[in-house]
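TL;DR need structure tokens for one chain.
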Amino acid sequence: MEVKNTQKSTSVFEIPIKDYEIDMEKDSSKEKKNEILDLFKNHNHLKSVAEFKEIEYKLHYACEEGDLDLIKILLSETTQDATNDLTFKIDKTNHTASLFKVNQNLENLIIPRTVKHEMNDYLVTSITGLGCSYGNQSKIKIIKFEEDSSVSTIYGRAFEYSKIEEISIPSNLTKICEYAFSGCSN
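>> reply
TL;DR here they are.
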């Protein structure tokens, strides 16, 4: 699947760290506060306020949980596929990708094994979300994975408030985080 870069600027958006201080005082994240702050300062690839607003809610959740992997993914570079239907977070160091957002009008979703970005293939290893929120529900009813999928993790709140009726679980899936299907009634 061909992807294109959706980022327009080369400057980095400065995360308002003070807004996350209370999240880092939870029992689950207190001991990881320094690591979280390090990610905020040294792994931030957000380019705009709009890009920050897209992750703000999930970033609060990830900080409360002390989920360093999810924080790193959320702060990673964002790209879209050629059809603009799928948005990914790209880890250029590990050549991996996480499905981050999906066109709200899709009813059937097939999650690809890899995505191409800047002439490189990235293995899709996780799902961080469909881009759903309360009042902004996805129309996706069926989720399938390409053969030999490498998705191993579905993060918390990934399918939150979606209208999923059916999902095929790939054989490599080893972790479904708490609240992954929060608000799903179908």
